[in-house]
Amino acid sequence: MKKLTGIVLIVVLIASLVGCGGVTAESATQSFLEAVKTMNVEEISKYVDYDELVNTSEESEEMESITEQEEFVKQIFTGMSYAIIESSEEKESATVKAEITNIDMKNVMGEFIKEAFSFAFANAFSNVLSDEEMEQKMTEMMLASLESNKDKKVTNTVDIQLKKVDGAWKIDLNDELQNAITGDLMEVANSFEDSFAGEAAAEDTQEEELIWYEKNVGDEVEFATILFKVKSVNETKAIKSTYSEAEAQEGAKYVVLEVEVTNITKENITFDPLFILIDQEERNFEVSDDTWILDDSMVYRELAPSIKENGVLVYEVPEDATSYVIAAGKADTNEAYKIVLK
Length: 342
Fold this sequence. Notes:
Layout: H1 2-8, H2 25-38, H3 41-44, H4 50-53, H5 57-68, H6 70-78, E1 81-89, E2 93-103, H7 105-126, H8 131-148, E3 153-165, E4 168-171, H9 175-181, H10 185-191, H11 193-208, E5 211-216, E6 220-222, E7 226-236, E8 238-240, E9 245-247, E10 252-263, E11 269-270, E12 276-279, E13 284-285, E14 302-303, E15 308-318, E16 324-329, E17 335-340
Parallel strand pairs: 5-17
Antiparallel strand pairs: 1-2, 2-3, 3-4, 6-7, 7-10, 8-9, 10-15, 11-14, 12-13, 12-16, 16-17
Helix pairs in contact: 1-5, 6-8, 7-8
Organism: Acidaminobacter hydrogenoformans DSM 2784
Keywords: Signal
Protein name: DUF4352 domain-containing protein
């Protein structure tokens, strides 16, 4: 999740912007938005106060990461479009109302976070990739998420505030404008700020020592919000419910887990199965979408406090998967568990 910090900091690249001297506030706004849309670094440089940009140590430390993610930055802004609705201008201040449309980063980040968590847990278990290789993999995942969600757009209407400084228009890059030009990325970042901060601390701990505990079928495992137990494991080529059925792809099979889950918090929660199945070849698999068709699916089931719920989770794996575990970490700790299934 460290990558998210570098991603959000792309917004800082367009901080402290000033319009070209001698133009109207509306023209300055259009020039600014065009420069962002095309990611023309030379043109953006006409608007950016780089001295102010590098004043904070955190920003300076991240500049290399921003450069490395140039392709990602371009993909975010390439699809941006805008329309100026109206503007009002006084001697030293102005407001330009605009509709800004861009790729919906809520979808992008939702998909990325799910994939990143799955991959990170699998790599922690197998410890195959170096830090550099892991960073490269995360960047590839982010680009793939952008590509698969590029047609899902979000539009924000914003009042862009400008002030004249030394005869030139300066744009106030407030939270509302930042959020609009990044397709709600700032809203996503703010909503996950606390959890990512906690995870960053957990990553630091895990880099020093990740403690793995091995459990077996029938053992109860306590995680941060639930007690979890795998009661039985079965392999099959097809699954069915009252109204539907599904068959594993050619060369694949289903691994069906009967599980028991208990909410140990004091409020209702939704069960989000982040358990990754890892086979003897260190291939990792998420819970299959086919789990949804089953009457007793545990996927996203609402859990009331202290009430045991029983259901199933289904993984689709290659037929040559002869042994496997499921793995997950305990939130806010350096504890991780692998449950041996076969």
